[in-house]
From TrEMBL:
Superkingdom of origin: Bacteria
Alphabetical UniProt keywords: Oxidoreductase
Pfam families: Aldo_ket_red (PF00248)
Residues of the NADP-dependent oxidoreductase domain: 16-314
Protein name as it appears in the record: Aldo/keto reductase
GO cellular component: cytosol
GO molecular function, one term: oxidoreductase activity
Species of origin: Rahnella contaminans
SUPFAM superfamilies: NAD(P)-linked oxidoreductase
Length: 317
């Protein structure tokens, strides 16, 4: 498995990142353990989660994904074999939100406890916090790195101006900087990233681990008619958002390239992202070993210039 560096952190990761949002949501602990075992078999050892996963499930409170990963780490003793990323900032209860130094210190201890580890490889701001000065948040993250609790930090859901400002604040104050960005990016959702964020990333040598790599399943070709909305819990939203003239053009492009390579549309969609110079490792999830086996093959699928042009034209914004 080829590897790429996360920004300038020195941390090497595979070409695909596994999204742990499914743990404690669409897969239970036993199935999660099977997926984690299989990920290592595929040498896909970069796991991204968040403290808030999966609080949206009835009966959950957040922390379920981290807890499952922690239980797996305790059972297997394989902490040194994985690169572990998590996030802070989304609402986790009364007074537990944002990026104040007080809350960052509280939240990281809670995550470390749930994950049953003494360090996090990549600790990310899940949302920008306009109410806390960037210098204060970054100083808190810097302290965690110096304490050995965090190896590197990253940002998710930041606008281009705020990301650039954060990098400037780090440089001016001698603080640890965001080494990664986690934006929404895929063949359907290109504009926001390509219009402004990509330049900030490339100018500053940041790594990019984009989420919704398969546009919530749309880019697998699973949703081609309105009737397909019934295929999953997310189906209605996916069909309402993506099943339009442009979305159908994207699927046609994916079908064309997939047929040429004897591949699946989802594999092609991920291979297109991997081939983009500014992208480090797209995030993708699976809920079964069969899905995981299929997705893993995207890391070895090489698209040529004609394939890239076909997909770029089909998804032009």
């Amino acid at each position: 498995m080829s590897k790429r560096e996360l920004g300038r952190s020195g941390i090497q990761v595979p070409l695909l990142t596994f999204g742990g949002n499914v743990f404690g949501w669409t897969v239970d602990q036993a199935a999660s353990f099977n997926l984690l075992d299989a990920l290592l078999d595929h040498k896909l050892n970069f796991i991204d989660t968040a403290d808030v996963y999966s609080s949206w499930v009835e009966g959950n409170h957040g922390g379920e994904s981290e807890t499952i990963i922690g239980n797996w780490l305790k059972k297997t003793g394989k902490r040194d074999q994985i690169i572990l990323a998590t996030k802070v900032g989304k609402p986790m209860g009364e007074g537990k939100v944002g990026l104040s130094p007080r809350y960052i210190k509280e939240a990281v201890e809670a995550s470390l406890k749930r994950l049953q580890t003494d360090y996090i490889d990549l600790y990310q701001s899940h949302d920008d916090d306009a109410d806390t000065p960037l210098a204060e948040s970054l100083a808190a993250f810097d302290a965690l790195i110096k304490e050995g609790k965090v190896r590197a930090i990253g940002a998710s859901n930041y606008s281009a101006p705020r990301l650039a400002e954060a990098l400037k604040v780090s440089k001016e104050n001698g603080l640890a900087r965001y080494e990664t960005l986690q934006p929404q990016y895929n063949l359907y959702d290109r504009k926001v990233y390509e219009e402004a964020l990509e330049k900030v990333v490339t100018d500053n040598g940041l790594g990019v681990i984009n989420f919704y790599g398969l546009a919530a399943g749309f880019l697998t070709g699973k949703y081609r008619t309105k009737a397909d909305a019934s295929k999953s819990k997310r189906g209605e939203n996916v069909v309402a958002r993506c099943l339009n003239e442009r979305g159908l053009k994207v699927l046609q492009g994916l079908d064309q390239v997939a047929e040429k390579h004897g591949a699946q549309p989802g594999q092609v969609a991920l291979a297109w992202q991997i081939a983009r110079p500014s992208i480090t490792s797209p995030i993708v999830s699976a809920t079964s070993l069969q899905q995981l086996n299929e997705l893993a093959q995207a890391a070895t699928l090489k698209l040529d210039d004609a394939d890239i042009r076909t997909l770029n034209d089909a998804s032009a914004w």
